[in-house]
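Dear colleague,

As promised, here are the two records you asked about, laid out in our usual form so they can be pasted straight into your sheet.

NAME FIELD: protein one
SEQUENCE, THEN STRUCTURE:
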Amino acid sequence: AVTTPPSLYALLPYCGQSSSGGSVTVGCLASSYSPDPAIFTWTSNEHLITDQVKTYPSVLNKNGLYTLSSQLTIAESQLDNIHCKVAHKSNTWPPVEIPMPGQCCSPTRYSTISFPFPGCETPEPVKVSFLPPSPKQVLMEPIVTLTCVEANAPHDVSVTWTQEQTHLQSGYGKPSATGPQEVISKLNISTQDWTGGKVYFCIVSHDDIPTPIRKKIFKDPGEHPMYLLLPSAEELSAQQSLTLSCLVKNFAPKEIFVEWTVNDQLIDANKYKNTELMADSADYSTYSMLSISAGDWDRGYSYSCVVGHEIFPLKTLTRAVNKSSGKPSFVNISLVLMDTVNACQ
């Protein structure tokens, strides 16, 4: 009789799927061999596995060759280093562990298959995040762009944008230039709607995503104060150089500028000092100090702290102070800033 060695195939469930109990069933198929029998063994780290193994009777095909299959049910967390081996009369080589190609099932004439295969690992879950408009776009343009980023998503994923319950646009995601496993979808909206705090949703769906992923983005308004500090009593009594201070607290995003004017004329930047941004959680603060002469203060010169931030309707906000502002104290000038993109909910 002619001896024909088996071709060994790996049988896997749909990549990434497991039962509700966290177990998976993998299989081996020995095909087109002769004569019978062929014997399967399963091992984990070279230890024989006998539990949850089921080997089916061999089948004689019309071409006179046999087919044999065996399956193993095991916890998904224990799938590493699982080997399926087949022993047959035709084997003239020792069993060897082989790396499999990037397909879930591939034939080989070797006698060992290892699980899991490269390329058939459990896929990463789809993650949805946002890229907010750039500060320059918000400051300078009437239209801003929101970008919905889908990581680990199929390239034909469907993306729908809504503003609250109002449908805005639908379409397929486009490949991202920054990562091969990312697709993106963009939505253009008016700058006024964005800075006004309207809520937008990015809804990601695909046949491979059991439940559509719905994420929201908006600019959350809040009260964030700016304090203008007058010269101290000690400085005023000394009648020498005086200090005006401008403190801007709890703003975001971090892009901001602070300048000073005197009688509506811009003061040279060498005359004042702005501190580095101070970060507190997701908010920022900054501090600016301006040195002036006691004589100019006594003459009633008007000094202004000018703050530029993307949220202001006119992009800058100016508040003035002079000698008539009162006794040295904290002068609370309430500015309304807005938080940056709210974290994906």
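NAME FIELD: protein two
SEQUENCE, THEN STRUCTURE:
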Amino acid sequence: MPECSIQTQFGPLILTERNGAITALNWGHAPAEDSTKLLQEACAQITDYAAGRREVFDLPLRVAGSDFQRAVCAQMSAIPYGQTLTYGDIARALGVPAQAVGQACGANPIPIIIPCHRVMGARGMTGFSGAGGVETKVALLRHEGGVLI
């Protein structure tokens, strides 16, 4: 699968493409660069986001997993830049328990682009599965001018 790396203030990121869609975003460096036009565009959009010039990503995405995982990712993708929802908000929209939403958020394969950092617990800040944990989540929310609860 083609991969490329990009350095951001949120750490080094690896983007992965498979069959014409972005399928993963992870922290680290790709062992070998194998860039495609889509990966070049994805890196440009991440660069623009990190520089404050982009609020919405326009990339083909493919989320592996269950229908439920894809439904949670769709709900997260609908959260506007700089805003947050709670696990309970998403759970109510889907008619499922908040704990299940939390697990699906933690399994998000394409963080930042699918903004799981915009999902909070009922009592405020919760963990983050990306490198740096909650500190990275706070950095992403501050970058967006989001409310930290």
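A couple of things worth noting about protein two: Residues 37-50 form the longest helix (14 residues). The chain has five helices and five strands.

Best,
R.
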